[in-house]
């Protein structure tokens, strides 16, 4: 008989309850089975299979090149590694903007082929029709406002967004539009902390920030950044919890030395 312990899974309702009780939501990205297993076992609330996979896994300069098939590959690997957390998957660039039918079929493919629990989409009023259509299929949608990397060629830079009153006003309106449409949560990326806090207070759904200060309902970081694997990326909002890049380099140099000196393998490491 299996004695596997039943864990209480995190759902979109759990996140809503966390907002109401004031418990902060912790979210990290993951793109593969092994990393997802470790992050889930550590007790994370949400794993985001971000299209940042395009940068940190594939080495592209932007998130634009990653495809729906590639996102499904990453997402299904993550889903196989988790027991407890909610898994949200980015709809990649070009699979939902401007055509709500295509948006729905992209979201359905992610849910069917990866087993994930929700999708995330960048944008506000301009993608409302796509959000509406996806929601009619019962697929939970997380919004994403502020710095939206899929629009990098429109912005031209990765600097802080919505510093000016006009853009801040539009962002606040967009957050309300996403809430009214039925999104279960919103990510706010790289905007002034006072604006993010205002948004979190103005909407009843959980607001999760990255570079958006502490007045929101939760935080998200790209795991490769917080582990110190991506060493060249150092924005002000990033706290590094490990120096894995350095530690891995040291481990590899030691391994090379041991192989060259025939120290590895020793007698106990062979048959
Ligand atoms: O793709 C991603 O990792 C993201 C986070 C930065 C929120 O969208």
Structural commentary:
The protein starts with 11 loop residues before the first helix and ends in an 11-residue tail after the last helix. It has an 8-stranded parallel β-barrel with strand order 1-2-3-4-5-6-7-8, surrounded by 7 helices. The protein is an alpha/beta fold and 271 residues long. The chain is built from 11 helices and 8 strands. The chain has 2 domains: 12-240, Alpha-Beta Barrel (TIM Barrel); 243-271, no CATH class. The radius of gyration is 20 Å and the shape is globular. The protein has helices spanning 12-21, 33-41, 53-56, 68-81, 100-114, 128-136, 152-155, 165-181, 193-202, 223-226, 244-260, and strands at residues 25-29, 46-49, 86-90, 118-122, 141-146, 185-189, 207-210, 218-221. The structure holds 3-methyl-2-oxobutanoic acid.
Blueprint (SSEs and pairs):
Elements: H1 12-21, E1 25-29, H2 33-41, E2 46-49, H3 53-56, H4 68-81, E3 86-90, H5 100-114, E4 118-122, H6 128-136, E5 141-146, H7 152-155, H8 165-181, E6 185-189, H9 193-202, E7 207-210, E8 218-221, H10 223-226, H11 244-260
Parallel strand pairs: 1-2, 1-8, 2-3, 3-4, 4-5, 5-6, 6-7, 7-8
Helix pairs in contact: 2-4, 4-5, 5-6, 8-9
The structure holds 3-methyl-2-oxobutanoic acid.
Number of domains: 2
Mean pLDDT, all residues: 97
How would a crystallographer describe the biggest sheet? 8 strands, parallel, barrel
Molecular shape: globular
Stretches where pLDDT is under 50 for at least 5 consecutive residues are: none
Q: Which sequence of strands runs across the widest sheet? A: 1-2-3-4-5-6-7-8
DSSP helix fraction: 40-55%
Write out the distinct hetero groups bound to the structure. 3-methyl-2-oxobutanoic acid
Which CATH first-tier class of the largest domain would you pick? Alpha Beta
N-to-C CA distance:
34 Å
| CATH architecture descriptor name of the largest domain | Alpha-Beta Barrel
The count of DSSP E runs of length 2 or more, i.e. the number of strands, is 8
């Amino acid at each position: 008989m299996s004695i596997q312990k039943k864990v209480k899974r995190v759902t979109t309702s759990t996140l809503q309850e966390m907002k109401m009780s004031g418990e902060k939501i912790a979210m990290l990205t993951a793109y593969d089975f092994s990393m997802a297993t470790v992050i889930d076992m550590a007790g994370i609330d949400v794993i985001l299979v971000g299209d940042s996979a395009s940068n940190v896994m594939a080495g592209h300069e932007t998130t634009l090149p990653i495809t729906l098939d590639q996102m499904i590959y990453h997402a299904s690997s993550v889903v196989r590694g988790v027991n407890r957390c909610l898994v949200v998957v980015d709809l990649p660039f070009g699979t939902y903007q401007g055509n709500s039918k295509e948006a729905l079929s992209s979201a359905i493919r992610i849910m069917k082929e990866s087993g994930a629990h929700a999708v995330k989409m960048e944008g506000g009023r301009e993608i409302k029709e796509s959000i509406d259509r996806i929601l009619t299929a019962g697929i939970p949608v997380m919004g994403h406002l502020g710095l939206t990397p899929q629009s990098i060629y429109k912005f031209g830079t990765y600097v802080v967004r919505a510093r000016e009153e006009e853009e801040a006003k539009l962002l606040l309106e967009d957050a309300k539009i996403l809430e009214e449409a039925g999104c279960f949560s919103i990510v706010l990326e790289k905007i002034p902390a006072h604006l993010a806090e205002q948004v979190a207070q103005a909407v009843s759904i959980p607001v999760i920030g990255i570079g958006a200060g502490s007045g929101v309902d939760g935080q998200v970081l790209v795991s490769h950044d917080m582990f110190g694997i991506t060493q060249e990326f150092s924005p002000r909002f990033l706290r590094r919890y490990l120096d894995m890049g350095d530690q891995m380099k040291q481990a590899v140099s030691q391994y090379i030395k041991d192989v060259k000196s025939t120290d590895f393998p020793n007698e106990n490491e062979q048959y």
